Structure formats: structure tokens, C-alpha cells
Amino acid sequence: MSLIELFKQHIPKEHHHWFNRNQLADFYAGFYGHGMDVHMWSELHDCMESSTESEEALFMWGKAIEHLARGEKADFKMAAGEAKKLSEPAMEGCKENGKYAVVSTEMGAWFYDFWTQDGAHEQMMENIEAHPFKVKFDIVAMRAQMALGFYYGAGSSYGRFWKHLMGKPTWSVDMSSPKMAPVKVDHNETAAAILNSNSFYTLTGMDVRKEW
């Protein structure tokens, strides 16, 4: 019997859900919460399905972060792409949630608008120089948290990392509105490719953005 199983036998049953919650939802909740400053914990845990694919997606996010920090371009591209692909079925039910639809759209627009503007790289470097230690800490933290199984923390560090590089996102919707209708998601594939290429460039110094 593993130590974790032994420990679970000695805690109250009402707390067993802590071990069985969707850990991929933890990661994305941290990412949205600290990248977009929107708390999505309850929504994501309600709408995301826990499955073999979600577990594999979480594993691949860990591998992607590991490869990215090591500068392993090909492995990072493969792991990040696979993580995104494996995450999609788990998040299918979230498309019916108005808040998720708005936040995911704004997330895609945030990356797209920043990296397609003139002087995007110069602006990124200026942002890094404004708080270099925070950026370095984000990278170290996300790797350590992922390795330790603190997935909400890893997602939070990943979100803060991008906010430090690109600045706080500018919202085009009123997030204080009590009702948020579903919004069509634009630029998602382009934003994902831009995210992958620029993150690789930032962490390794190798400019391969035209290849992505």
C-alpha cells in the first residue's frame, strides 16, 4: 500500500475529495486566476471532466514546462501541442459557461494583440528589465510546483510569467456584469502558436518564431 493511500485511510471521509479533484482544472484555474486576474476555480471544477485524457494533459503540461526551461525546442513543441490537444475534451463542457467563454476569448486576444503589435519584442524586453527577478522566479517556481504536484501554484506561476512579460491584459468586456453571454473565440490557434514560439525565445534566447 502506498503512503498516500495509507494517509487517506486516516483522514475524515469528507476530506477525501481533496485527493480526487480534477488537477488539470487546478492548473487552468491558477493560469486564468493569475494571468487574467479572474477567479475561475469553481467554474472550471464544475465544467471540466476528469478523465484519462485530463491526467495525460496535465502530465504533458509538466513535460512542456520542463522542456521549455531546458531549451529543448522540439520536445517542448510536441509536449505543449499534445497538452493543449488533450485538454480540449476535458474542457468541452466549459463552452456552455458564459464566464469561461468570455475569459478564454480575452486570453486569446491578449496574446494575439501583444505579439502582433509593432515592437512587441522590444516591449517584452522592457517589461522583463522592469522586474527580471520576478520573471526568473516564475520560471523556477512553475517547474518546482509542477514537480511537487502543486498544480494550482504551477498554473499561477505560468500566468504571472506571461503577465510580467506582456503586462496586464486590457479587457474589452465589462467583467462586473452579472451576466456574461457566450462569446465566439477568435485567434485561439494563432495565439497558441505565438505563445509557444515566444516562450521558447524568452527562456532560451533562440529566435525561432518564424518557424512556428
Structure description:
34% of the residues are buried. The chain has helices at 3-8, 17-20, 23-35, 41-47, 52-70, 73-90, 98-115, 120-130, 132-148, 151-166, 188-204. It is globular, with a radius of gyration of 18 Å. The chain contains eleven helices and no strands. Mean pLDDT is 77; it is low at 1-19, 179-190 and 208-212. It is an all-alpha fold and 212 residues long. Helix 5 (52-70) runs antiparallel to helix 6 (73-90), helix 5 (52-70) crosses helix 9 and helix 9 (132-148) runs antiparallel to helix 10. The longest helix has 19 residues, at 52-70. Helix content is 69%, strand content 0%.
Descriptive terms for the model:
globular, 212 residues
Record the SSE blueprint.
Blueprint: H1 3-8, H2 17-20, H3 23-35, H4 41-47, H5 52-70, H6 73-90, H7 98-115, H8 120-130, H9 132-148, H10 151-166, H11 188-204
Helix pairs in contact: 3-10, 5-6, 5-9, 7-11, 9-10
